[in-house]
From TrEMBL:
SMART domains (alphabetical): HTH_ARAC
Pfam name, any one: AraC_binding
PROSITE patterns attached to this UniProt entry: HTH_ARAC_FAMILY_1, HTH_ARAC_FAMILY_2
Residue ranges of domain HTH araC/xylS-type in the record: 204-302
MF annotations from Gene Ontology: DNA-binding transcription factor activity; sequence-specific DNA binding
Keywords linked to the UniProt accession: DNA-binding, Transcription, Transcription regulation
Protein name: HTH araC/xylS-type domain-containing protein
Cited SUPFAM superfamilies: Homeodomain-like, Regulatory protein AraC
InterPro entries on file: AraC-bd, Homeodomain-like_sf, HTH-like, HTH_AraC, HTH_AraC-typ_CS, RmlC-like_jellyroll
Length: 349
């Protein structure tokens, strides 16, 4: 990933079951690599979703919180995580800082070729879709993990370079990687617990309801009625599948939705608060501080936000042209500490 910010706002397209719709790979080579800047996503994060493919993320910049079921994993540059098939997961930059992730997505069949063969039955079937192994985090500080991370980095280099016969070398590396993953988790493989498709279906209904009604006062009774479950069951399934309570998820979703209204420039903070379902401006400000790290007003008028908005709107923009645009638009740069912009890697030297 180069130093520039990816300008086009992105989303993770999903179907009615919250499974991702993007084709990450092809029939001829069912593995792909992407370089993801979380600031390029519409909500500056990747919200809860799941898919049949295996996903491997390597943090290149910033600190990323991966929420996998009920556990949060905080990954620093050089750390990695492998997420199993059909496991709900999300990724957030910590303290709203810029975070970049290299992501490998592969179809499980890439590992064993033919369903039902020995590789599938004895090696991968006990691992895939096993909720006892929802993910495998790897940390750069651990020497054994570092060897695995180096294999992943080599896979990414090969995929990007498209050197001669790169597919063959990637296949070799990915099989070696999973050989070591399976070996390190062989005791967990004996306790196979398949993903609960009914719970995934119920979670999809709850997420859809929250996304459609976030601007209105929330009623747990209405959600329970909508899902044909008791209030207790709603809360239990949601917390088990996402790792956060319904209230926590809804507040976080409201905050990220509020960013587009703030940056639009046509709404007061009081208007934004009301539009996003907060009962008062003070409650909105408190929740915003906890999520973003500053007040809505400071976020709206900060020089960081102004510059990042320019960077996100136009391609191939450099540091000087951004400053000229700010001047031309009669924006006020609050701080002249431009070195902090470089150290924050908003702009590379």
């Amino acid at each position: 990933m180069d130093g520039g910010i990816n300008m086009k706002k992105r989303t993770v397209p999903i179907n009615e079951t919250k499974k991702e719709l993007v084709e990450h790979s092809t029939f001829f080579f069912p593995l792909t690599v992407s370089h993801d800047d979380l600031f390029s996503f519409e909500e500056k994060c990747i919200r809860c979703h799941w898919h049949d493919d295996l996903e491997i993320g390597i943090v290149k910049q910033g600190i990323v919180e991966y929420q996998i079921a009920e556990t949060s994993y905080f990954l620093y540059p050089g750390d990695a995580i492998t997420i199993n098939s059909d496991i709900p997961h999300s990724a957030f930059p910590v303290q709203n800082s810029r975070a970049i992730i290299d992501t490998i997505i592969l179809q499980p069949m890439f590992l064993y070729d033919i369903p039902g063969n020995d590789l599938d039955r004895t090696c991968f079937h006990p691992f895939l879709y096993n909720t006892n192994i929802p993910c495998v985090p790897l940390f750069q500080k651990n020497s054994s993990d570092k060897l695995l991370i180096e294999k992943l980095e080599e896979i990414i280099r090969l995929f990007d370079s498209k050197s001669d016969f790169f597919q063959l070398k990637i296949k070799s590396l990915i099989l070696d990687y999973f050989y070591m993953i399976l070996l390190n988790n062989k005791n967990k493989l004996k306790l196979f617990s398949p993903s609960n498709q009914e719970h995934l279906r119920k979670l999809r209904i709850m997420l859809d309801y929250l996304h459609e009604h976030y601007q209105k006062p929330f009623s747990l009774n209405e959600l329970a009625k909508h899902t044909a479950m008791s209030k207790e069951t709603c809360c239990r399934i949601f917390k088990h599948m996402t790792g956060v309570t319904i209230s926590q998820y809804l507040t976080d979703y409201r905050i990220t939705q509020s960013l587009k209204y703030l940056c639009d420039g046509n709404y007061s903070i009081a208007n934004v608060s009301a539009l996003c379902g907060f009962s008062s401006q003070s409650r909105y400000a408190k929740a915003f501080r906890l999520k973003i790290g500053c007040n809505p007003g400071k976020y709206l008028h900060s020089d960081f936000n102004i510059i990042k908005n320019h960077c996100n709107s136009e391609p191939c923009i450099d540091f000087v042209s951004v400053l000229l645009k700010i001047y031309a638009g009669r924006f006020t740069v609050i701080r002249n500490d431009f070195s902090s912009l470089v150290s924050a890697r908003i702009f590379p030297l």
